[in-house]
Fold:
Amino acid sequence: MIADISNLGGTTVAVNGGIQVEIGRTRYSLDPHGQVRADYTFVSHAHIDHMHNPSKNEKVIASSLTRELAKARGYDLGETIEELEGVELLDSGHILGSRAIRIQDEVYYTGDASGRARAFLGKCRTRQARILVMETTYGTPEYVFPPTAKLVKEVNSLISSAYDRGSPVVLMGYPLGKAQLLSYFFSSWDPIFYHESVATMNSIHMDHGVPLKPGRRFDPLKDQDRLPRGPWVMVSPMSSGRSRLMAHLKKEHGAILVAFSGWAMGQGYKYAMGADYSFPLSDHCDYQELISLVQAVSPEMVYTVHGFASEFARDLRRMGFSARPLAAYQSSLSDYLEG
Ligand SMILES: [Zn+2]
Structure:
C-alpha cells in the first residue's frame, strides 16, 4: 500500500515500505523495512531499523563497510553496489560506513546524518539537489547540542571523581556507533571492559584502522561475578538502570550509570533510563545543523522523515523553503534505542 505520494516535475517520491523515489523509469527504494520491488535498494547504514534481508533479485546499493557490519548483525545484503552511473554515495557522518545518496542532481537522501565531526567520524557531506529527503530526528530548536570536547571533559572529570572514591562507571550507548565513540573518547581509563555486543563491533572498527584500545570482553552471562572490586570503566549497550545487569552492577559494585543520547537534552531522559547521569552525545544533526544541511543542498522541495518531521517542515516553510513531512514514515521506539 502506498501511503503518501507526490510528483514533482516527473520525479516521484512515495512511502511504500520505506521511501520510494522514481526518476525517469528507474525506481529506487531507500532504507526499506522489508523486501520491495524496485530497480535498486539503498541501505544507508547498519542500524537495525534500517536493515532487512533483501531478496536474491534486489540490487543493493550500500558501502562495503555497511555490508560487513550488517553481516556481523545477522543481515546478508549479498553483493552490494558502491559505484553506479548517476549515483553518488556521500559520507553521512552517522556511524562507520553510513552514506547519504545523491541520485543525479535530482534527489539527495540523508539517511541518518551527523552535522559534526566526532573522533574517527567526519561530518555529513552535502551536494546540491532539487529534492531533499532528510531525517529530522532532532528537528526542534531545543535540540542544539553542546561542543563534543566540552562534554568529553565533563565526563572525564566525572570518571575521575568516581575513581577517587573507588567506584566503577558504566558508559551506555547503542552498541554500533555510540559505543565506539565512547570506547575512543574514554580509552585512557584502566581497566576498561567492553560488553560483548560492543566488543564485536569494536573489533570490526579496529580491523578498519580505528584506533580503539583492546579492552576486556565482558559476557554478562559468564562474567557477572568475576568483575574486580575497585574502579573500572565499562562500555555497554543502552540498558535501563532497572534491568537485571545494571541493578546487579549498582548493588554489588556501586557502579555509576551514565547514558549518552541526543535525547539527554531533555531533563526526563535520565530518569526514564534509570541512569545516574546523562549527556547529549548524538550521532544525528542538531536543529542548527539540520538547517545548515538544507541551506547547503539548496533544494526546491524538502521532505522530512523521523522525529520532529512536521515541526521542522513548518519551520522550513517559515524560512521560505517548500517543505512537508512524508506521511506514514515516522519514527518508532527503536529510534530511541538505536538511532
Ligand atoms: Zn542510525
